Amino acid sequence: MPITLVVADDQAMVRQGFSALLAAQPDLSVLGEAADGIEAVELCRRVHPDVVLMDVRMPRRDGLWAAAQILGARGADEVQLPADGVAGRTKVLMLTTFDIDDYVYEALRIGASGFLLKDAPADELVRAVRVVAAGEALLAPSITRRLIREVTGRRTRPRSDRAIEALTPREREVLDLVADGKSNQEIATDLFVAEQTVKTHVSSVLTKLSLRDRAQAVVFAYENGLK
């Protein structure tokens, strides 16, 4: 089955260009386009895509608000569209023209699977969609880690000591490497274990910390002074 997509961007040429590029891939299928956050949420409710490419800044409702609705999170604002029909499996990949942007950080906290600069090469966009659809977070680029460092450095949040203490030493080690933006394969190489073992540890970390995915695990690590 192909990876199904929705592209949300207020600029028609950008939106159509991304859609054409992605639709040309044999394993990708674009189900529709949206010009603002409200259209994106309503479209996702109808077609249930695997991945939404979501522009951060759009009219009426921005990408941060839309991501919160699609991912079932609270935090964008108090206005919520009816949750029935919004695809629970949908992953959100944020698109931005800014390399350091508080909106992107908030999107990661809400549960977005990562972000990509709009001027990224075409092959990087295609790869990003596949990575996010596979359940990985798009966090390897150093610019993402710099974003999290800079924004969390300006925020004061209580440490989650009880949650951290629930992790085994190996799980703490895995969390540290996840926060470095490393893939399961890279972590397996570093720790001299099987990739499946790493997947098991990552799953356990997410469960114990009540986190949605690897993106939130990275945010957790930085917020709690583990990096």
Automatic annotation (TrEMBL):
InterPro entries membership: CheY-like_superfamily, NreC/VraR/RcsB-like_REC, Sig_transdc_resp-reg_C-effctor, Sig_transdc_resp-reg_receiver, Tscrpt_reg_LuxR_C, WalR-like
HTH luxR-type domain location: 160-225
GO biological process, one term: phosphorelay signal transduction system
Single annotated GO MF: DNA binding
A Pfam family hit: GerE
Keyword list, A-Z: DNA-binding, Phosphoprotein, Transcription, Transcription regulation
Alphabetical list of SMART domains matching this protein: HTH_LUXR (SM00421), REC (SM00448)
Superkingdom, natural source: Bacteria
Transmembrane segments annotated in the record for this chain: none
Matches recorded under Gene3D superfamilies: 3.40.50.2300
Domain named Response regulatory: residues: 4-133
4-aspartylphosphate modifications at: 55
PANTHER family hit by this protein: TRANSCRIPTIONAL REGULATORY PROTEIN NARL-RELATED, TWO-COMPONENT RESPONSE REGULATOR
Record's protein name: DNA-binding response regulator
Taxonomic source organism: Gordonia oryzae
